[in-house]
Design a protein that fits this description.
With 283 residues, the chain is an alpha/beta fold. 34% of the residues lie in helices and 8% in strands. It contains 10 helices and 5 strands; from the N terminus they run βαβαβααβααβαααα. InterPro entries: DUF3431.
Length: 283
């Protein structure tokens, strides 16, 4: 049975401006559900599992076509530059005034190596996700394992080739930070860290902590910057989603507590400890 959420509360009043389009958007409407899955997809992606999953638990889809020639029937992002960041930010800008209670940003393929606690299947992961934890925290990374980007995303313990290829962005980060956050470059954190890999759940209230114009500015930077290539821009955004959504620069929850909070596996641990999951009362 589909779950229909009540009419969402009005967002804070914001001065709005449009993002320059490379092409016109198709009409965008999303039913008023309490959960929406947001995903970038190419023509080769199979998101049939998402349709089946939403039919089972009650949610809506916001799939963005990332092909150069847009795939009919899907949402079109403002830019294709930046990989999933283009789709994620386009969704926030497009639907800022009509966000569901929970937006879940995920990759299109069901099997992802970085899904950890309940296996590699994203549908299994989402079935186990405690939305009480999402409500309590506002923003949660769907991965609990700290490696490879905690506690220092610029210097992972076991760097992959792309970590070495794009390490130059660390030197550019203060200037990038200033552009993204409209803040002095001196305020850029020296160290950043959070679990990888660009999949997270967030409440509309957490998104609304920033005005829409902040997301417009970040999206415009993604669309127009020449500091790196398509991969490098997405590589950078993956490292700072938690900062964009108001978390500390180093946001590396203890694995066991994350597993308990998000997926309800609270022990007993090998040492006999039984953890207590976060609740809405802990907000």
């Amino acid at each position: 049975m589909h779950i229909v959420c009540p009419e969402p509360p009005p967002p804070p009043q914001q001065k709005q401006r449009d993002v320059p389009r490379q092409r016109d958007f198709q009409a965008k409407t999303i039913p008023i559900w309490d959960k929406v899955l947001v995903t970038p997809k190419t023509e080769s992606s199979d998101i049939g599992w998402m349709h089946a999953f939403c039919a089972e638990i009650g949610c809506a889809l916001a799939p963005y076509t990332m092909d150069e020639i847009p795939e009919p029937g899907y949402l079109i992002p403002s830019t294709r530059q930046g990989r999933e960041a283009a789709a994620y930010l386009s969704y926030i800008v497009d639907f800022y005034n009509e966000l569901p209670a929970y937006s879940i940003f995920i990759h299109s393929n069901q099997i992802q190596w970085h899904n950890d606690v309940v296996g590699v299947s994203t549908s299994d992961l989402l079935r186990s996700l405690r939305f009480e934890a999402v409500e309590a925290r506002g923003f949660v990374n769907l991965r609990c394992t700290s490696a490879p980007l905690c506690p220092d995303a610029w210097h992972p313990l076991n760097p992959a080739p792309h970590d070495l290829d794009y390490v130059y962005m660390m030197d550019l980060f203060p200037g990038i930070y200033a552009e993204l956050f409209n803040a002095p470059a001196e305020q850029a954190p020296i160290r950043i860290g959070a679990p990888c890999c660009g999949q997270f759940a967030i409440t509309r209230e957490k998104i609304w902590e920033r005005p829409r114009e902040d997301y417009v500015r970040i999206l415009e930077w993604v669309a127009n910057t020449d500091v790196s290539d398509n991969f490098g821009i997405g590589f950078l955004l993956e490292k700072i989603w938690h900062i964009i959504f108001g978390m500390e620069p180093i946001h590396c929850p203890r694995f066991e507590q994350c597993r308990c909070d998000l997926y309800g596996w609270c022990g007993p641990l090998p040492n006999g400890e039984v953890l207590t999951p976060v609740t809405i009362d802990d907000r």
